[in-house]
Known about the structure:
Number of helices: 10
Order of helices and strands: HHHHHHHHHH
Shape: globular
Low-confidence stretches: none
Helix content: over 70%
Strand content: under 5%
Radius of gyration: 17 Å
Number of domains: 1
Oligomer: single chain
Distance between the termini: 41 Å
Amino acid sequence: MVEHTELYNIVTGYTYLGIAFYYIIFDFVSPISDELSLIIIASLAHSGLMNLWAGGIVSFLALYTRNIILFYLSRNRTRLIGWLSEKYPVWMGTYQRQMTENLAKTVFILTFVPKLRILVPLAAGMARVKVHRFLLLQSISMALFISVFYPMGIFFFDGIKRLMSRLGDINQGLLAAFLLFAVIAISLLVGRYISRKAK
């Protein structure tokens, strides 16, 4: 099933360049969460497609670069950011205010919440957060995020591969849905834990 995803095709076709291309450009329209994509990339690296360490480092650099670009666009009030703030006024306003009140806590919590982490650079830019503070906190939070989910693809690769070979297409779909649910649940639990520690 994974073999039919855009991520699989891009990464197997272009390896490191494919990872960068996926996260910086294609990730915006992909239905695959960042958590699951990291697990897939780590699994592909573990299978011998690329160096394990290099795969993790390139994933970090790609996600970090994407967020720097979004931060820059948001800070300079481009049309895209204006459209997003009009489309999601409550979310953008809330997180922009939280960035002003407690930057570190907001960055770390949102980094571990699926699909909301894309709001981190946007809200930070709109809140006019100092560039060096954003870059530091974002680098730490993204490194922690990757260090949680990237190893999952390494540790569970062999077991998942054996299990997938014994299952039919329907059961593979159910397993993939369960794994996605587990990834999201773990991400939410980690985010809640970090938010409690930050209080």
